[in-house]
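Database export, one record per block. Field names are fixed; values are copied verbatim from the stored entry.
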Amino acid sequence: MNRLSYEEFLAHGDEFDRAVSRTPEIARFCSSALWQKAAHDTMQQPEEGDEYFIFEEEGNWIVFAERGGRRIFYPLEAAWMFGSPLIGDPLDCLDLLRRATTECLDSPFGFCFGGIRKGGILHRAIMARREECLQFEEFPATDCVGIDLSGGYDEWLARRSKKFRKSIRQLRLPEGVSIEDVSRESPGELFSRIEAVQRETYKWAEGIDIFQVETYRKFYRILLEELHDREDLRILFARREDSDLAYIFGGVQNTTYRGFQMSYIEEAKPLGIGNALQLRNLQLRADEGILHYDLGMHSPYKERWADRWDEYVGAFLVW
C-alpha cells in the first residue's frame, strides 16, 4: 500500500489512467487524471492544512482530498462528482480504503463518494458494507447519457426513431455556412473564439453563462490547452464567411469522447446549426474509432441522441 502526495499522483498520471481504462461502470474521461487535476486546481483548491488521502496498491487507487479542515474527504472533482475516487477493481479498492483508513487515520473520518453507477458493482459493495459504518447516507448524483458507437455511425443512426432519421436526412446547412475542424489551431486563439461565441448567447445576456464564472472558465481553459498538447482536443466551428456562428468542444481518451460545451450565437438559433454540428462530430468520432460518445449530464433534448442513460448516486460514510 503506497501513499502518494498530490504531486506524486500527477507524476503517475499515465499509470492512473491505464487503471481508469480497466475500471468498470465509471465515467472514464471524468475519472481521468486530467479532469481531476483541472477541477482540483481551479474549483476545489484545498485550504492550508488540508490533507490528501491518495493510495495505490497493485493497480488499485483511492484518490481523495480534505476540504475546509473538517476532516471530510472528497473526490478531487467535487463540483459535479462525475468521476469515481476509487479506480481499479471496485471490491479491492473498497478494501484498500478500509485498510488505509484503519492504518492511517486515528479517529473517525468522513468520505464522500461520487461517480457510483446505481446498481453497479461498487454500489452493491458499498451497500453491503454500510453496517460497518458509524454513519452512512446515500444521495442522488448527476445522471449522464451516452452514445454507443461500437458498431459505427450507421448502426447508431439505425437505432434512432423514424422521425429522428427523417429529420437527419432533411438536415442541410444554410447557404454560406461551413463546419471546420480547428482542433490543431492555437489553443489561445481557440479559447478566445469560444468566449466570443459565448458572449453572443442568450445565457450570457441573462448572466447565467458558465463562462461568466471565473473558476469554470479556468477549468475549461486548462482542459483545452492540455488536450491540445496531447492532440486529444476535438473542436468544430460553424462559420459563415469570416464569422463564427457556433462550436462544439470536447476531448478524447483512448476510445471515449467526452463532450464539454456546445453553443451558438443567438442570431444563429433559427438555422438549426446545433444539430448539424453534433451530427458532424458524431461522424468524425466514429470514423476515428471512438466507441463511447459521452454526452455528459442528462438533459431531455439529449435523449433522442442517446443509447444509454446512466443513473449515478453519491454516498457519504464515516468509518
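Remark 1: The CA atoms of residues 82 and 115 lie 5 Å apart.
Remark 2: The longest strand covers residues 243-253.
End of record.
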